[in-house]
Structures are given as structure tokens and as C-alpha cells.
Write a structure and sequence with these properties.
Blueprint (H helix, E strand, L loop, with lengths): L1 H13 L7 E4 L13 E5 L2 E6 L14 H20 L7 E6 L4 H8 L7 E5 L4 H10 L6 E4 L5 H12 L4
Parallel strand pairs: 1-3, 1-4, 4-5, 5-6
Antiparallel strand pairs: 2-3
Helix pairs in contact: 2-3
The chain binds zinc ion.
């Protein structure tokens, strides 16, 4: 009940014409090399907020270092989340990349939104435990997209298709 009220309030405020604003949260980069940096990206009435690795560092994607650095990812996802935090109320939907061991932090942060406003973008590392974390955080109603390890290409495509739907 609370979920639909929050969503309806946001929709009413923007009016019928406004496109939903989306956010993308990842401890990695959107694109490899980085295609969309941190902050708002706009195209006409479409807006996307990207919160990613603060220094645009690319992890994973065959580098073999993803698992070693996953420990650090929890800290990086926290920093990325801080970028998006002040814009959270403005966002109609948040896409959250959930990698290997940084996953609990990312899911816990996403839990600050209602499940209906969250789509998790999972690579298949520890997929079962990531889904369990999502359920434990009360986000069973969220959508999920499966992606490659690192999520670079999937997130880049997602942002590009949202900003330039005809292409
Ligand atoms: Zn993976």
C-alpha cells in the first residue's frame, strides 16, 4: 500500500507528459571503457542519473581481478550510492548492478526504495545467494535482468536505449 502511494505521488508531481527518470548504480563503470560518467545524462525529456565507480575504474570484464577486488566493491558502491542519494526522491526507477561480493551493500542500499522501483542487474556469480539477499531485504517484488560479469555492456546498452529509443 505504501509502495503504490509513494509511486503515485511522484507520478502526480511530474504530470502526464514527463518521462520517468531512471538511475543506474554500479561499483563498476557503465561501458568499458566508460561510456557514461557519473551524474545526469539528458536527451530531450529523458534523464538518467549514473552513479558508478568514482574514478571511472573498470573492473572485471575478463581482467580476472573482479573477485580479488570484490572486497573493496562494498566501499565503492557506498561511495557511488552517496552520489545518487540526494537525487533518490526524483528517480522513478533505479537499476542496480549486483556483482559478486559487493552485493550485500548494493542490495541494502537499494532497499531504501520500494521494490517496484528497483531492477537488479545480476551477473551469475553467486546468483542464488544474491537472490536470497534480495529476498532478505524485502525486495522480492523487484525485477531482475541477467548480464555478463561486470555489467558494463548491459548497463551501457540500457542507458543508451533509454536516452535514444529510436536507435
Ligand atoms: Zn560475475
Amino acid at each position: 500500500m505504501i509502495v503504490s502511494m509513494v509511486y503515485a505521488k511522484g507520478a502526480a508531481k511530474k504530470g502526464k507528459e514527463a518521462m520517468p527518470k531512471i538511475g543506474v548504480l554500479t561499483y563498476n563503470t557503465v561501458g568499458s571503457p566508460q561510456a557514461y560518467g557519473n551524474g545526469w545524462h539528458r536527451n530531450e525529456d529523458r534523464e538518467v542519473f549514473v552513479a558508478s565507480h568514482p574514478r571511472g575504474q573498470v573492473w572485471g570484464a575478463g581482467s580476472g581481478t573482479l573477485h580479488e577486488t570484490a572486497r573493496i566493491a562494498a566501499g565503492v558502491v557506498q561511495q557511488a550510492f552517496e552520489q545518487i542519494e540526494s537525487n533518490l526522491d526524483e528517480l522513478d526507477h533505479l537499476y542496480v548492478y549486483v556483482g559478486d561480493r559487493g552485493s550485500e551493500g548494493a542490495v541494502a542500499l537499494a532497499a531504501r526504495l520500494p521494490a517496484s522501483k528497483v531492477t537488479f542487474v545480476f551477473c551469475d556469480c553467486n546468483l542464488g545467494s544474491k537472490r536470497a539477499t534480495v529476498r532478505a531485504q524485502g525486495l522480492s517484488g523487484s525485477e531482475e535482468i541477467l548480464c555478463e560479469c561486470g555489467g558494463h555492456r548491459t548497463l551501457e546498452r540500457l542507458v543508451r536505449q533509454y536516452l535514444q529509443p529510436g536507435q
